[in-house]
Amino acid sequence: MGKRRKVLQGNIIVARAAIDAGCNFFAGYPITPSSEIAQYMSREMPKLGRDFIQMEDEIASLGACIGASLAGRKVLTATSGPGFSLMQEHLGMGVMAEIPLVIVNVMRGGPSTGLPTKPSQSDVMQTRWGTHGDHPIIVLTPAFASELYSETVRAFNLSERFWNPVILLYDEVLAKAHEDIELPYKKDLEIYKEKVHKIKDLDIYDREIGQNPHRVDFFKGYPIHIDGLEHDKHGWPTSEPGTVQKQQTLRMQKIYHYLDDIIKYNEYYMDDAEILVFAFGVSARAALPAVEMARELGIRAGLFQPLTLWPFPKQILRQRFSRIKKVLTVELNMGQVRYEMERVASDDVEKRALLRANGIPFTPGEVLDQIKEF
Amino acid sequence: MSNLEKRFEIRYGAVGGQGIITAGALLVDIVVHKENGYALESPTYTATVRGGPTKVDVILSNKPILFPQATAIDFFVCTYQVPFDLYKSRLRDDAIVVVDSHLVTDLGDTRSWKLHSIPIINETKKQLGNVILTSVVTLSLTQKLTGVIQYRNMVDFIRQWAPADFLELNMEAIELGRSLV
Amino acid sequence: MRHYERYIRYRTFPTPWCPGCGDGVVLKSIAMAFSELELDPNDIVVVAGIGCSGRMPTFFNTNTLHTTHGRALTFATGIKLARPDKMVVVISGDGDATAIGGNHLIHAARRNIGINLVLINNGVYGMTGGQVSPLTPQKFITETTPYGNIEPKFDIAELLIAAKASFVARETVNRPVQLKDVVKKSFQHKGFSVVEVISNCHINLGRRNRMKDPIAMTKWIEGRTVSKAQYEKMSPEERLHMYPTGILFEDKDRLEYSDLYYKHIIPAAQAAAEAAALKQAERTSASRKVKS
Questions:
Q1: Bridge partners of C117?
Q2: Could you give the number of structural domains in chain A?
Q3: What is the ipTM of this complex?
Q4: Partners for C (CB, 8 Å, 3+ pairs)?
């Protein structure tokens, strides 16, 4: 038994991983089922000389995070559906100004106040398209205790590497379950560190396609301007069509050039699978035993579990669909990933979905029944 | 893990819920830290945790746990009628079922359950003077009826866990749990 | 180049403001206050929200941040807590600060976080074309009150005093020297400070209310400006349409938020961590003794 083997609540695993990853600023607002993260941070961050603040709402929380990120901090906020809806405007600001930040969204049933607090996976599209305008986004979906830890660390690394908000998306069941976890040692963690740019103040966003902006933080000797308005290579507001189109492309391509570095997934029993079960989060934890039971019955099912939900693992799925002609999407909503699957899988792939949005997670037995029927 | 061959599912049902959340947490800790097994506790956590019906699922196994909620419950302890009615649906036909004899009176179809109807709450109040100790009483009767953890490991763990001033009372709670079943 | 021009980013000119707008007066007053305090431009960040006032940071040669509508104070709060050693100035309009940002305004004041707010009150949403704001005087015609404004306005200074801001002042664009002086004093204040600047929007407010040029509007402002001492002698009815100016409230003793966090919370948490570690060590050594 390792010394680092602990029993921890899912939310606490995430909070500890954030601290281990070097998060040194947390601003948040209480909302079930994410509040334990804020509570843990309020207790632990000041012990390390780091900042915690409870703001007046979720809009303010993300605002404070962006401000602190610009002042050189590694920032985190945590919320659930209704709070995440309030954050959308500042999520857009984070994308536009290219700010590294991590948002935890613990999904509960919606819309509106919805089901406080029963699990749900209905923020799939809100995380992708919640803020207005075209924008790149990275969304990570852990399912197991060890992944809650590793994906939190990865969320910080990706946000720092790509200067973009990253969302860690999981559900109430994973948030509240107390599980045993072998915590990694901090020295074994890979933490991404951005090179410090020595640049003149006026060319922050001057770069080639596929590159990050040359960000220098505030107070580093080169007074800079950061804007939520569309801006030119200096950061000054502009609406000149050529520049605007170029900036849109630059923001997209700094991420879409590196899909191989971003997209991560687990495959179980996929080598000879005839049915691909696509499930993430708590649904993956029902789908995996279901696939195992199906195998015992001689049904060749396999599980594709995305750890990166957005950008959607389109290319790799298309490769799988060159051979596998049946896909079952399992999600705790009325059908969100399903639409993406219809776009990704060609017409010769038979597509089914197991959907439910009543606050009760699918059991392995229910998933198995669908696999058997397929 | 010595005496656990496969997935074993426990559900605790109550009103309020702090007691069973603690019982579940203790059980998970003992399995993980003393028995080298895998364990997971999955509570319903809602506004109802303050006074409403509450359940805690505890899953134990000799390998990593995949699905985090109970689907075929081996062992069920419930101290109130409302959570009993709400949360009995996923019990196995041959489940071991422990109910509070004063507070759960309408059992309905008891299938082939091994049923124990005992005055958990009353005896805890009467003998230990504090209803908070139902958590340890529940843990102890779980140990005795299921054998999923070893008695010695449970006692060792409670010794470490209990505050010094309350150690004796916790030990009495263990003995009360054993004597009730 | 005059000294205060070190703080002006001429490269981003021209400004988007209409000729005769009071915002230019505010811009220069702030730059002159920076200059008289001999601040390093790199040690300052100027943050703003949306609206005519929101464009102002672009023209300061300091660190600058143009944020979302009404939320500048939230970004500023994050910056100040992360870097308490730096000067954080927020510029906001009346719609930005008191309507969409009203909640953030009272909470920043309540926390007494060391942000220096310059709230430019021209009584209207200028950039969006002249709609009513929470500080539009009653009976005024705007694009969304075509029959006259029936809503009373906030007395923003009184509101902020009630919300526990530790420095509250008011001045007008009619008096640039006094404005510069009071802005400078607010910048020297350690907690949350606000200077409400009564300004003119002759284009989008004055024009619809028989004050279509800057002179007419500044005259209107002048007629409503009184000293604090004079104001206190007035009856409630007389006070209704008047703006007392000068420093209206100042509490130099109240501790600033990030100061409290670093001097109280962090040491308290570290002491708690040490005590817990000590207790753990005692427990371990006690159990060792039992075993031996």
A1: C90, C194
A2: 2
A3: 0.96
A4: A
